[in-house]
Amino acid sequence: MSKYLGIDASTQSITGLIIDAEQRTIVAEASINFDEHFKATYGVVNGVLDLGEGVVHSIPLMWAEALDLLLQTLADQGHDLSAVQAIAGSGQQHGTVYLNASAGPALARLSPSQPLKDQLAAIFARPTSPIWMDTSTASQCAEIEAAVGGRDALLALTGNAAFERFSGPQIRKFYQTEPDAYADTAYIGLVSSYVASLLAGRLVGVDPGDGSGTNMMDIAARQWSTRALDATAPGLAAKLLPIAPSSQPVGPISPYHVGRYGFADDCLLLPFSGDNPCSLIGLGLVAPGQVALSLGTSDTLFACMDQPRTSAAGEGAVFASPDGTHYMALTCYLNGSLAREAVRDQYGMNWDQFTSALRATPPSNNGALMLPYFAPEIVPKVPQPHVVRQNLDPTDALANVRAVIEAQALSSRIHARWMGVEISSLYVTGGASANAEILRVFANVHNCPVHRFETTNSAALGAALRAAHAHQSSTGHAPSWAEVVEPFAQPIAGSTIEPEPRAVAAYDELIGQYAALEQAHT
Ligand code: XUL
Is the CB of 317 inside a 6 Å radius of any atom of ligand 1? Predict the structure, then answer.
């Protein structure tokens, strides 16, 4: 018995992944897509509610319903959940969940005979949750930075300048715009700690990995910072639980899940962390200098660092690694799959045609460039959607496909410099990592080999590995992180894409033009 479950509560779906640590394999993977199952009930599109003017929310009750459906699906697939020894998880970062005083008691008395959604509908002080795609808090960011003594002071204290999507500015906006509802809020959690609470049957704290995405945590101490909390909203400390160390079990799973899905009553539960910090573990980045790229709804480039190095220009974020000692650098480009899909749809293509377009066009695209801000962009900061074409005919479908991918790769190189990490290889994951032609562009732009990983669910895998590490440590035989990740964090044999010297040279020439175009429009 050495089975561990990782759960990733992400933007468009919730995924469960079970590993067998002894057999060194993934034994189950199941995913519940929110649009497929819940569009009719909750009105979500791509998992979210776009409320206009940069306001993007999702629905915590939907996540509870999706968790039930996920565990039922795993059980229906014949997986023996009583064999799972520990569970950890990950959540889309930054999203905040607002609960009233009935939440704790309601979680404690959950009956396995009724679904979560019927028992928890009344626990919310706010029915929707602002998520990481929300860009509506520019004024709150400025106010928070000013209140702690300026941007550099916030950067030094929390590791990050104020970002619109981060939890603190979102909480401040809620306090300012809905003061009564804020006053009625007994507990504020993140997506990660909320889903962990659903599994624990009690309120669970935020871990340092996700806490560092709030603008409210002292990154060196890995504790909430009173100074940052005071700058965010009054009475906030009383609405937060203490930071929960990532590797310290919060207790056994709730009797609800034991009764309903057959989990063992001593199955250990770990705090959840953010999806990116969990992906860091899932990709095996447990030593400083290792770099990975996740091609998902957003594209994220991240590295393992020994110090919380910060980006003064606000290009990237720094999070505590859930391994307990290291830090991760993350640069998040909002226009990831969003932009790839926008181009694909604009020209009425399917993915095969998209790939053929990449094959049919030359590296550097005969000098045609696109700034692909189909939605407001995080890096570089672009508040309004804004697609720019230079030497690029909008009716030329093939060139537009290449232009969007080259823009993403060039931007990932330009805005990775602050990490101070020499990129000698890239480990790639996420939905679009299955596309070798996209990876070829990244290999040539970064002039380094690109390796693909088996799972596209690195966050769920990282969570499962965190569960394995904590459970094995609790039995007295503490393994090193390298030992835990090594069997799973292996690139697919034969997947490596090497850079091609002529294409590398073409991009070395093009990158200056791209940077100039970007500067002219941001
Ligand atoms: C990271 C970020 C996104 C979300 C959703 O800062 O905003 O990557 O974590 O995946």
Answer: yes
